[in-house]
Amino acid sequence: MTTSDSTSGPADCRRCRHFRSAPYEARLEGCYFPDNMVSKQSAGYLDEQQQPGRHDKINRKGDCKDFVARDEAIPFWRRLFAG
Ligand code: SF4
Q1: Would you say the CB of residue 19 lies under 6 angstroms from ligand 1?
Q2: 2, 34, 49, 50: most buried by Cβ count inside 10 Å?
Q3: Residue 20: CB within 6 Å of ligand 1?
Q4: Helix ranges restricted to H, 1-83
């Protein structure tokens, strides 16, 4: 029996818009999709109190229905020469 990693399935958390990694995107790494969060705050100044969901458990099989692919990053040189 094999176990699937949340980073290897078709719904890869690290390519999902709802995933934030620590320490640059968020204080705690995890899933910030509102329905999956343990604790959420609407006010920005209460951001420290937010607790994301456990993406590794929610998307254990790599088939999360809430997956939304991130936009592809545009290379600097392409932005520089964009007309
Ligand atoms: S919504 Fe699903 S795929 Fe996206 S980060 Fe959360 S658990 Fe992972």
Answers
A1: yes
A2: 50
A3: no
A4: 55-58, 76-80
